[in-house]
DNA sequence: ATATAATATGAATGGTTATTCATATGAACA
DNA sequence: TGTTCATATGAATAACCATTCATATTATAT
């Protein structure tokens, strides 16, 4: 005989649950780190600011593909841009980016 | 006149770059957290172990949908299962899950 | 052993998204 | 001011993925 009460478990779990909006924002943040290309871009920018062409060369990809991804990263406020002569140099915009990447690395290494 | 040397910037960035495999594993980890349903499941399990039906009720979703997502979370070693009578109770399998969720919350709150 | 309740699975569908190609924009330097 | 180079953009394509519906599997408890 089961002692499991769905209602009790569910109503208990409902307390202190993050708001829909917080959860939504959070998944959107993690989506930024859930793509191979974007993660590599962020790792590249961890060391120094770079222009689009630099990143495209580094990753062996089309300039256009990098540009599209940089736009997403900029919208997500993970990356910022400044002009230097002919080039636009991108760098990390958020102190948390490194922290989140570290969090991921740490997890991966302990396997 | 530009002082920017693509070759220099790129070869500098290539040093100490994580391996393809590490980056791949990392994006796969973040993919787990990049879905609204999965994040809510993880938050639910943060408090107590629950069966599939509990989670489906809590989130107002089909049992089948939850089951599919639990399979992914189990494959990703973020969640584990044990049988208790008629039910299979799921719980977090990884001490890092909470840490990563906290990381996300922290980031969101400072906006 | 069988019936039942809980969970898992497979195929199908719709929605999302990364990339490419072609082209537009825009700033810089002559 | 015009030309050139770096970057951005739009449309199209293809791959991916979450959900649903229908059904299969599995363990339990009688």
Summarize the structure.
2 copies of one chain form a homodimer. With 111 residues, the first copy, chain A, is mainly alpha-helical. The first copy, chain A, is 63% helix and 11% strand.
Overview of this structure, please?
The structure is a homodimer of 111-residue chains. The first copy, chain A, has 6 helices and 2 strands. With 111 residues, chain A is mainly α. Chain A has a single domain, classed as Arc Repressor Mutant, subunit A (Orthogonal Bundle). A two-stranded antiparallel ribbon of chain A has the order 1-2. The longest helix of chain A has 15 residues, at 95-109. The first copy, chain A, is elongated. The first copy, chain A, starts with 5 loop residues before the first helix and ends with a helix. Chains A and B meet through α1, α2, α3, α4 and α6 of A and α1, α2, α3, α4 and α6 of B. Chain A binds a DNA duplex (30 and 30 nucleotides) through residues 1-2, 35, 37, 51-53, 61-65, 67-71, 83, 85-88.
Please outline the helices and strands.
The structure is a homodimer of 111-residue chains.
Chain A (H helix, E strand, L loop, with lengths): L5 H9 L5 H13 L3 H12 L4 H8 L3 H13 L3 E6 L2 E6 L2 H15 L2
Antiparallel strand pairs in A: 1-2
The structure holds a DNA duplex (30 and 30 nucleotides).
Q: State the CATH class of chain A.
A: Mainly Alpha
> How many β-strands of chain A, per DSSP?
2
* Total domain count of chain A: 1
Q: Per CATH, which architecture of chain A?
A: Orthogonal Bundle
What summary fits the major beta sheet of chain A? 2 strands, antiparallel
Mean pLDDT of chain A: 93
Widest β-sheet, arrangement of strands of chain A: 1-2
CATH fold-level name of chain A:
Arc Repressor Mutant, subunit A
Q: What would the principal axes of the Cα set say about the shape of chain A?
A: elongated
Q: Which stretches of chain A are poorly predicted, pLDDT < 50 over at least 5 residues?
A: none
State the CATH superfamily name of chain A: Winged helix-like DNA-binding domain superfamily/Winged helix DNA-binding domain
Topology of chain A as a string of helices (H) and strands (E) = HHHHHEEH
The portion of residues forming beta strands of chain A comes to 5-15%
Assembly state (oligomeric): homodimer
Find the structural class of chain A using helix and strand composition. Answer: mainly alpha
Q: Which chains make the largest contact?
A: A-B, 55 and 55 residues
Based on CA atoms alone, the radius of gyration of chain A comes out at 20 Å
